[in-house]
């Protein structure tokens, strides 16, 4: 089972787990994907032993991603082409933190783009708006660019919390 982990500090509202409800503070988030495409998302307090399933974040990848071609801010088609995945999300009350304007809330669009070397850039914008913002501390490098869809789905699972 392939696993990717990151240290995170969620927005004020914390993250909802299946086992203990909302947890906040400095956390570790891990996503794992098995050979059948099953994706599990777990979270724990940094350095603690017990893992909790992130509510509504687990999924099964059933087919290859349908991707378009997009370009990260500041680059043009001559410099790189990237696979891009986009989803509509509604984050919890605390919103999501961006590098450019701080916290944004409401109905958003989340896009991840991945280059051939596994470099992932994560951006959000208000649905239908033109200006994109970098999701704070979300960019990463994958060991295998084919994991892009699993990472995108995990982000959607973590951030899409329309019930608050």
Please provide a written account of the structure.
This protein has one helix at residues 148-159; strands at residues 2-8, 15-17, 21-23, 27-33, 38-45, 52-53, 59-60, 68-70, 82-89, 96-98, 102-104, 108-114, 119-126, 133-134, 140-141. The longest helix is centred in the last third of the chain and has 12 residues, at 148-159. It has one domain (2-159). The radius of gyration is 15 Å and the shape is globular. Strand 12 and strand 13 form a beta hairpin. It has 164 residues and is mostly beta strands.
Strand content: 35-45%
Residue-averaged pLDDT: 77
Order of helices and strands: EEEEEEEEEEEEEEEH
Classification by helices and strands: mainly beta
Unreliable parts: 62-81
Task: Please outline the major beta sheet.
Answer: 6 strands, antiparallel
Principal-axis shape equals globular
In total, how many domains does the architecture comprise?
1
Secondary structure tally, helices: 1
The value of Rg in angstroms is 15 Å
Distance between the termini: 31 Å
* Number of DSSP E strands: 15
Helix content: under 10%
């Amino acid at each position: 089972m392939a696993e990717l982990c990151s240290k995170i500090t969620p927005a004020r509202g914390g993250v909802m787990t299946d086992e203990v409800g909302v947890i906040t503070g400095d956390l570790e988030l891990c996503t794992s994907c098995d050979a059948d495409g099953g994706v599990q998302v777990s979270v724990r307090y940094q350095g603690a032993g017990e893992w909790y399933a992130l509510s509504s974040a687990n999924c099964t990848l059933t087919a290859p991603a349908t991707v378009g071609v997009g370009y990260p801010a500041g680059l043009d088609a001559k410099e790189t082409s990237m696979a891009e995945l986009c989803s509509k999300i509604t984050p919890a009350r605390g919103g999501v933190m961006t590098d450019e304007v701080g916290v944004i809330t409401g109905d958003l669009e989340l896009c991840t783009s991945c280059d051939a070397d596994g470099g992932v850039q994560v951006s959000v914008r208000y649905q239908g708006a033109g200006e994109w913002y970098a999701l704070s501390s979300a960019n990463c490098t994958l060991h295998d660019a084919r994991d892009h869809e699993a990472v995108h789905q995990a982000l959607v699972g973590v951030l899409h919390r329309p019930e608050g």
